[in-house]
Amino acid sequence: MPNLEPLAVLALSFAEFKPYIVLGVALGGVYALSGVGLVVLYRATGVLNLAFGAVGAAGALISWYLINHTGWPDALAYLVCIAFGGVVTLAYGAVFGPAFAARDPLVKTIATLGLTLVLLGLMAWRAPVGAFVRILQLPTTQWRYDVAGVSVSWTQIMALGFAVAVTAGTAAFLRYTSLGTAMRSLANDREITATLGVPVRRVEAAAWFGSGLVCGAAGLLLADLLTTLDYSALTFLVISALAAALIGRLQSLWVTLAGGIAIGLVQALLTPIQSITQYRAVTPFMLAIIVLLWFGRRRVVTISRTAN
After folding, report:
1. What's the rounded mean pLDDT across residues 203-212?
2. What domains sit in the chain, N to C, each tagged with a CATH number?
3. pTM (2 decimals)?
4. Which of 17, 75, 134, 222 is the most buried (most CB within 10 A)?
5. Mean pLDDT value across the chain
6. What would the mean pLDDT of 73-92 be, rounded to a whole number?
């Protein structure tokens, strides 16, 4: 009779991993959602918004305050979180966007660190870390379904579904609408686009505002998925979104979506492995480096064949 012990161990291991797979896909959806917001803004303005996580964290903190310390309805507080992201990023783009328009992309990107530090300082002032645990839980977390023996919440389903929907909607918007076409033109050449009569400031404002709305939604979802409203952790989760955007080479929305999901999934699967769980934070960097090196390798091979 064959020894079934290895199979039993394998089955047990897979059963232990299943909850992490669900969580990883959900978190990956939010990373992908944030990455798509970063890519759209970069393609339209040349700015890689490093304050993306801080804006989302601040919006989630405001939403938590309205729910717990005022009589505001929960749904209205959630809308405030999303609107806050759009308003803050639009204000930054309107004030500082024109001033940095002619500067190098690196300078424009580093400038967004100032907004990050301002928001972090305000959050640390008004809501010190460690005072008590803040929890911002969406009602959809209570709605659960059993899928292959794993409890899946509607928030987790929403995180993935919203990422796919926003990616598809944004791709269609950029391809089939006049405003989307103007955004793609800005990505190619801002000066020529302006000479053709395109209202550059208005198009850039739309990109800032749309990216900010995505930022607010991502902050709301992450605050729920991480179970605690740690604004410091939420701020630096922009690293995972940035890695997803880099995997998409700051161009492809669908590759960015796949990259974000892969990052979240790999990070989650490393969590129960005690020997390497402490290194899971490097996952975004490693995946981004591997993919970029692979794309670079393919480009070198193509150039060398052309030269021959």
Report:
1. 90
2. 20-307 (1.10.3470)
3. 0.85
4. 222
5. 82
6. 93
How confident is the model at residue 6, as a pLDDT? 45
Q: Which residues contact 29 (CB under 8 A, 6 or more apart)?
A: 159, 160, 161, 162, 163, 164, 260, 261, 264
Tell me the two tokens of residue 29.
Answer: 């959806």
